[in-house]
Amino acid sequence: MTRLAAAALLALVLSPATLAAADGQQAAILDAYAAKARAADPAFTGFSAARGEALFRREWNGGDPRTPACTSCHTANPKQPGRNAKTGRPIDPAAASASPERYADPGKVEKHFSRDCKSVLGRDCTAIERGDHITFMAGQ
Ligand code: HEC
Predict the structure, then answer these.
(1) Is the CB of 67 under 6 A from ligand 1?
(2) pLDDT in tens, 113-125
């Protein structure tokens, strides 16, 4: 097989349409964060929706003054559409039940955790915090 054909085949295999449900991708993202969490802390026993909710609702006031909390943009009710506190643009609900395409694209998930956590906490979120957040939102 030529290199080009191999690349095309790989792209086909990896394209969202050929993958199983978003649930499978979400589980893969959580597995990857769990592996990182275990590497960082051998006492890690699993993600917690309660911790994820606490992080989501807490007023951190650590980054951009326009965004003291995750709820500044995603609102206190994850099933409701949000609004970007910086740009005013609407945001689809954060809850997986309301936005089934969420937490399924590793690149998008990584990008938003890095950007949004810095804006709110003033630092990046850890692998445990990321897994906790997705676990919380998956149950919403
Ligand atoms: C400045 C506004 C803003 C704040 C504050 C914010 N977010 Fe976001 N977030 C967004 C936007 C905009 C998107 C992309 C929206 C979309 O895809 O519809 C997003 C998407 C995400 C995603 C990707 C979801 C997906 O579709 O897979 C995650 C994860 C996320 N945010 C987590 C957080 C967490 C955790 C916090 C708090 C630490 C937070 N966000 C605070 C604006 C914000």
Answers:
(1) yes
(2) 999 999 999 999 9
pLDDT digits (tens, 9 = 90+) for 35-56: 999 999 999 999 999 999 999 9
Ligand 1 atom 3, closest CA: 73
CB atoms within 10 A of CB 14: 9
Using alpha carbons only, what angle is made at residue 75 by residues 69 and 81, rounded to the nearest 5 degrees?
Answer: 140
The pLDDT-based confidence of 22 (bands split at 50, 70, 90) is: confident
Any atom of ligand 1 within 6 Å of the Cβ of 95: no
Q: Tell me how far the alpha carbon of residue 70 lies from the centroid of ligand 1, in angstroms.
A: 8
135 lines ligand 1 (CB under 6 A): no
Give me ligand 1 centre to Cα 49, in Å.
17
- Exposure b/e, 95-128, CB count within 10 A at least 16 = b: bbebbeebbbbeeebeeebeebbbbbbeeebbbb
